[in-house]
Design goal:
alpha/beta; about 25% strand
């Protein structure tokens, strides 16, 4: 017979830990299933130089702020240590090595199949985030490319790319940081930009741009656009005209590139910019403007999607690929199903996790 639990949380990263802490505060019995071999497995395995774009004052989890001694923008390693300390301090019931293969529902009960056997629960929290589901487009001619292709999620450090010709496809935050890091380490980097990129400063008047975004979100849309325009004007006055094409959408509609790592590298001639990839060739790529380039390596900085695979057809998704929800965290498709870590905007993923963990735990506690 499957082991039974009152509530199961799938995912032992920031979202799962925050929800667990809140459920414990409400006295709700639960278990946290982490597929990796450590708490915060994703943060243990992202690239070494990764640093939070969000200020530490708005990046802590419920009940425990980031340390006062931490820098304003916390490096990956320090944040991972914070997650482990968080789990220890609140004695959270995290079970590592519990990779979830499939989730089903029958007679009002959730069944979660793991490699260690099935578990059942009355309520389920999916806190899997997005990193477990990297988007990796396949290009025409990809099978004939003689070099290596990897997604940004597997990148760790620039050493392996020194002296090599590297094409970075995509200019989200990971692509911008990885591309500029490799270029400064001695790689010959080209970035392929399909639709442009909105770039905003990491700080404004010494404060994280996230803090401005938090307050700007409270304004009417027209006023928000004026704030965006002012920030853009200030950046152009200080740094000159943009070196990347500007997309059709506003920075309010998708997370922009935060910081000028890549912009500065392009301006200094360290990084070349091309249009989108039309096809791959034996030794490189042909771009949509007809130009060609030779490359040893291709890094797909093509983003991530919500990690919903184990749910199969139990849920439908919204236009951005996240499960349909009401009240931020409640499934529109299944009862007693909640999502934490699936809201992303300019106020920061961690800020949203803090908010959503409280919401989900409170709603679950009301049902006990």
């Amino acid at each position: 017979m499957p082991e039974q639990a009152d509530v199961l949380i799938v995912g032992g990263g920031p979202a799962g830990l925050a929800t667990s802490q809140q459920l414990r505060a409400h006295g709700v019995p639960h278990r946290v299933l982490e597929g990796g071999d450590t708490v915060g497995y994703t943060w243990a395995n992202l690239y070494d130089s990764l640093t939070l774009h969000t200020g530490k004052h708005m990046s802590g989890l419920p009940g425990r702020a980031l340390p006062r001694a931490a820098p304003l923008f916390v490096p990956r390693g320090e944040f991972w240590e914070y997650l482990r300390d968080y789990a220890r301090a609140f004695e959270l019931p995290v079970e590592t090595g519990c990779l979830v293969d499939r989730i089903t529902r029958s007679d009002g009960t959730w069944t979660i199949n793991t490699r260690g056997g099935p578990l059942t629960a009355r309520a389920l929290v999916v806190a899997t985030g997005i990193v477990a589901n990297p988007k990796a487009p396949r290009f025409p001619g990809q099978e004939r490319f003689a070099g290596r292709i990897e997604h940004s999620v597997t990148y760790r450090r620039p050493d392996a790319y020194v002296g090599r010709r590297v094409l970075v496809v995509g200019v989200g935050n990971s692509g911008a940081e990885i591309g500029s890091e490799i270029a400064r380490a001695g790689g010959k980097v080209t970035v392929a930009v399909r639709s442009g990129a909105n770039v905003v400063p990491l700080t404004l008047a010494g404060l994280p741009i996230q803090y401005l975004a938090y307050w700007a979100r409270k304004l009417p849309r027209a006023m928000q656009e004026r704030v965006v325009g002012l920030v853009r004007l200030m950046s152009e006055i200080k740094r000159g005209p943009p070196v990347l094409p500007r997309p059709a959408h506003s920075p309010l509609d998708a997370i922009p590139v935060i910081g000028f790592h890549l912009v500065d590298a392009i301006a200094q001639g360290l990084v070349d910019v091309r249009t989108g990839v039309a096809e791959l060739t034996t030794d490189g790529a042909r771009f949509t403007d007809g130009s060609v380039g030779s490359f040893d390596d291709i890094i797909l900085a093509t983003g991530f999607g919500a990690a919903l695979g184990p749910l199969g057809a139990l849920v439908q998704v919204d236009p951005k690929g996240f499960a349909r929800r009401r009240d931020r965290v409640v499934s529109l498709d299944q009862p007693n199903l909640f999502f934490v870590g699936h809201n992303y905007d300019a106020t920061g993923g961690l800020y949203n996790i803090n908010r959503d963990a409280r919401l989900a735990a409170g709603l679950i506690a009301q049902k006990t």
